[in-house]
Amino acid sequence: MKIKTEQISLPILKDKEINLYIKRLDLVHQHVSGNKWYKLKYNIIEAKSQLKDTLLTFGGAYSNHLAATSFAAKLNGFKSIGIIRGEKNHQLNPTLIFAKSNGMDLHYLSRSDYRKKHTEELILKLNKKFGDFYLIPEGGLNAQAIQGASEILEKNDVQDFICCAVGTGATMTGIINSSSANQNIIGFPVVKDFERLENIVKEYSNKRNFKFINNYLCGGYAKITNKLVDFIVDFNIIHKIPLDAVYTGKMMMGILDLVNKDYFPKRSNILVIHSGGLQGNQGMNNRFGLNLPHDF
Ligand SMILES: *Cc1c(COP(=O)(O)O)cnc(C)c1O
Question: Which residues, judged by CB distance below 6 Å to any ligand atom, belong to the binding site of ligand 1?
Fold first, then answer.
């Protein structure tokens, strides 16, 4: 698959003699957006080969993974079950309306039960309730996801630095595995458990050419600041590239800050992976009265 890559032009980049490119995985598919398309690819193939007819997965109420899985299931003729963290709200948010419209059967788990989501005990309970299913872990972190993510980098992606947003670490791990040893993979976590992330990436990757940059979280997972919102809105006006508020917006703000602070050597070539996730902006707009770019 040839994915569109665009060069970003800005005075600061010219000043610092840095070439910044963005790889638009957000354009891969309207509803199985960004890295989720890659992470689901081999899970779908595996579920078919195991002759399963149902996909079951977990997520928060605004989860890009849940939205993408619901559509991928429909597209491939699977039934789907979404196990949602927390209590049911009587009004569904746009993510859950979308998942439901794809036929996803939504069930809610209290936060304390949700914490047990990957235990044998809970999975047996789910089997009793729903019968047989193909399980995709929360956020889609498994070997199939990593295999899919290793197809994100293509032959021409030879830049010195590859930047990606990190949730579970599956995408970053896949990217590391298919990178060449002289490239530097830089992960921008959106959750605070840095040590756990680093351990996951170390365990499943085949190289050590990576680094995490941990100070662009804007306060934590799915937290937003005025500065972030303004950055995303302005970025979309200037470059016509929509970024999301949970992952890619924070990463891009971080990258430009690092450019400004001379983190990257002169004449560096940087590739930013736009991992999609724009459906989440709609929920942010509804909750906080914002005007973030979104895709539906
Ligand atoms: C899910 C998601 C990520 C995180 O991917 P992981 O493989 O879980 O690290 C990054 N960016 C976007 C837009 C996402 O939706």
Answer: 34-35, 64-65, 139, 165-172, 244, 247-248, 275-277
The Cα-based distances of 126 to 57, 97, 116 in angstroms read: 11, 23, 12
The residue-averaged pLDDT of 219-224 equals 96
Confidence band (pLDDT; 50, 70, 90) for 2? confident
Sign of CA dihedral 240, 251, 145, 4: positive
Nearest-10 Cα torsion for 152, 154, 159, 160: 70
Give residue-wise pLDDT tens across range 47-77: 999 999 999 999 999 999 999 999 999 999 9
> How far, in Å, from the CA of 167 to the mean position of ligand 1?
5
For the chain, percent helix, then strand, then coil, each to nearest 5?
A: 40, 20, 40
Here the tokens at position 174 are: 């896949």
Calculated CA dihedral for residues 147, 151, 152, 157, nearest 10 degrees: 130
Is this structure's pTM higher than 0.85?
yes
* Angle, alpha carbons 98-100-105 (nearest 5°): 145
- When the pLDDT of each residue in the chain is averaged and rounded to a whole number, the result is 96
195-207 residue pLDDT tens: 999 999 999 999 9
Residue 269 to residue 286: CA distance in whole angstroms: 37
**Which of 22, 275, 284, 292 for a ligand 1 pocket mutation test, highest count of atoms within 8 Å of Cβ?**
275
Whole-angstrom Cα distance, residue 57 to residue 221?
Answer: 20
Place of tokens 């530097």: 184
Backbone angles phi, psi at 212, to 5 degrees: -110, 140
